[in-house]
Amino acid sequence: MLFDKAVARSFSIVDRALRRSFPADYHKRCMYAAFGMQTLLSDFGHDASIQGGDAVTFMVSRSGHQAGMQGFAHAQEGHAHYWVVAAGWLIDIGPHYLPRDSGYPAAEVPLVCWELAAGLPPFLRYRVLEDFGPLTGLAATNEIHERMELFIGQCRSKAGNIIGQPKLPTWMLTSREAVERSAKLGDVWAKGALRFASMPGVEQSLPF
User: What is the pTM of this model?
Assistant: First the structure.
């Protein structure tokens, strides 16, 4: 399967599987999301490595009056966040869920599929603390192992039942050009991200 189609299909399947498996807190299950994405991308012919560390993304209120960086950092145990890298692209569903826990009514955040060779923009920052590679073992309790196996099984079952290319819940953040296109269409997040990136001294203000 072509890489872009494999990523889109994996995003759609993992999003639905998370919402079904963890209806109360699916937006906080980044480890399951990472394992699900890794499994599906591998099944579709693209090896993916799970990485752990810190991540923050630009957030803006729907009104455009409040904005800042929000995300996952400084975990006391393990890592604050998990995501995958495949074919040189950083792939993460986590930022799309950030509005759920924002302190203000936040605009929708896109799904992240960013080419690492282009360098990370000011509105998307990741700090890799550990790269688990394409063959990732889960160091966890038996209960978590069983829950993960059920989740992976559900992802694979959904993948086998999908006909055609599923529709994504939002657009994918693949490049600055994608942000500019979405901004022209009136996307609040995209317009705010471009303004944020153009601010003097923004690079120096970032946490990493």
Answer: 0.94
